[in-house]
Amino acid sequence: MPTMTLGTRDHFSLSYLWKTFKMLGPSRGTQSIDRLSAHCHGDSWFSDAYQWDNRLAPFVRTLARRPDLARLIKVIYISHHIFSTSEDKEQSRRNILLEAAGALGIDLPAAWEKRVEIRDSICPLEKFDWPDIYPIFSEFYLDDHPRMTEKQERQLRRVMAEKSMPGRRWMNAELVAMLLAHTPNIEIISIQSSPGWPTCGIAKSSLPVLGVTHLPVKRLDLGIQTGPIINICDNLEALNCHGYVGNLGSFKIEMPCLKNLMITDGSLSSFRLSKILEGCTGGLVAFEYEAGYGWGQNDDQLPTRNFQLSDTIESLRHHRSTLQVLHLDVTARSRDIRRAKPGINMRDYTSLQYLWISTILLCPSARMSDRPADVETFMDFLPCSIVSLEIYRDFTCSTDGAVQRVAAVKREKFPFLKKVVYGPKDRRNLRQAFEVEGVSFSIKIYSLSLAKGYLQGPNTDSRLEFPDWDSDEELRQGEK
Fold first, then answer.
1. Highest taxon of the source (predicted)?
2. d(CA 414, CA 416)
3. What is the pLDDT of residues 99-134, one digit of tens each?
4. What is the pTM of this model?
């Protein structure tokens, strides 16, 4: 969670609420919480003064026992540091999960069993990691008297102890779902990517069985799969996804209140981009996108799996009267860029003030020197409302002439322009040209991901290693 939220009255993060709960005695009341100072997550997670391992489950138990405190929580930041890494903690975590469900009046073993009554109905993504074992875990792990075969018992034991920790990953997700069920007034959720998550993040079936069909969340910062949480956040105003966009955009999701959409280290096709933006019916104010590495393709004969500039402009057209910020960073997939369709521009985006764009999006064919056609394309693309223009100069594109032309016609075409960033290499002649026109000039280009370190765990890939199971023949022999 960004540091700025920690000092706001009635805004609490998971990291320092845990410390607060331990400090509060029964006679002190909840009003003392607001006056306690807190570390930013960036230092408290790494401080030797605090031990965070396995703090998630005890925190959930605290919420279950103190609903008065749970109702005060507005902000939750979940770091990988709070996940259990010890096999001997699993029985305790199981008991806490059952206790927390009981506080909600929910028979959790029965609820989990319903999730797998029709095994074919389990979402494929939920059981993606170990598809044959997940139903066994869901049906029997919480049952005090499970009716399992010896093979199933053996498989369940291993799923909780295997080095890739599939069972513990599933339990982490279930504990976070329980945490959300006990925080009815939550407004901001930030979840860091981590190897402690299953591939699906929070299972789609986890929240409904806990009675959670709506969350009053206004901002989501997610480093995990996004779908199950987004679907129940009707009041969402800001969505911030890092790495795993999951099935976001595979179908239209209504997000009528969404104003700010940021996606980093991601990949979206033109179809999925259009579906996402169609769902933002209230009018976007900011769309910021940074492509992830490893998604590019070099074959011009194949349709690209990543959207192009033309797709972006067309999909955003419904938001042209509200959009103020557009950040399009495709430097990670420059080989996948196609030239924009003729006539594509943002001149009718009358509210756009802040634009971050790569030169290769506008002039992918300008290899050695500026061409007059590329200069005109660049000039015609920009709206007259622009205030801040940040341009990443791709090494394959020489667009100095086009940028210098912006300075030359600033007073006539771009009267509101106050700031230009054009880098990463220095261009002293450009600096002088803009400063003469009263426009600040810089060559410092910043990445969106650098501003979102709080979502990036030590391993953003949560896919599990394939387990080193015994063969089926060995398992059959063990059952005899």
1. Eukaryota
2. 6
3. 999 999 999 998 888 877 654 556 666 666 667 777
4. 0.80
